Structure formats: C-alpha cells, structure tokens
Amino acid sequence: MERKGFAKLVDRLEADDVLIVTKLDRLGRNAMDLRTTVDRLAADGVRVHCLALGGVDLTSAAGRMTMGVIAAVAEFERDLLIERTQAGLRRAKADGKTLGRPQALTAAQQASIRAARAAGISLGALAKEHGVSRAAIQRVEKRAA
Known about the structure:
By secondary structure, the protein is mainly alpha-helical. It has 2 domains: 4-94, Rossmann fold, CATH 3.40.50.1390; 107-144. The protein has helices at 4-12, 31-43, 61-94, 107-118, 123-130, 134-144, and strands spanning 18-21, 47-50, 56-57. Strands 1-2-3 form a 3-stranded mixed sheet, with helices on one face. Strand 1, helix 2 (31-43) and strand 2 (47-50) form a beta-alpha-beta unit. The chain starts with a helix and ends with a helix.
C-alpha cells in the first residue's frame, strides 16, 4: 500500500471486483506482505487472481494455501541467494580480492589531487585535468578524510 500507483488502484476497487496479477511478487515483497495485501482486498470484497498460478483465486481456501506455500518457497529461495552472495563476498575478501570497480585514478594522481585541493584548485578544474567527473574528485577528498 506504500506504492502510490498500487494505493490508487486499491482505492478504485469495489466489492465484487476481480484484481488480476501476473505474478505473486506484484502484490508484495515477502510472504507476510503478500498475505496482508490479499487479506485486505478480500475484506473489501475484492477477489485476487494470479495468472502465474493458472488464474487461481487467492482469496479462496485453495488459493490461500497455494499462495502461502509458493510465497514461503520464494522467500526461502531469496534468503538462500542472499546467504550465498554474502558467503562469496566474504570468501573473496579473505582471498585478498578487491571488490567493486577499479578506481579511475592512481594513488599518485589522488595524492596530487589532494594537494591541489588544499591549494584551492576547483573541483571542475581538477576533474577536467584528470578526465574524470567532479564526483570522482570528491570521492578522493572523502577517502582522505
């Protein structure tokens, strides 16, 4: 309900309307959010059909059970993906790999930029001189602080 477009849609729905969604993830971010949304719509007399589940009515007993199982499995898969990603990042750090994209400026260039900024040279002038954005110059300053 926090999404403006969805809240506007829900305001237009009336009792006996049918809301058709392509997939469950269009209704909520997790199993609890999904259940809350469907329950609220059902309380307003709105039936919710999901095309990915063969058009099943999520407000019916069978639909609720199907929705609960599928939402729980999807949430479980998402949690597993997060765990694997975090483990991979930890392993890469432990192996000494540098994460993220490479820095555009060498250590010598960064030292030169810090000295130039201390001397009052503008961000724009330094960005132009080094062929980078003003934001890149600001990041150099920020890392030094």
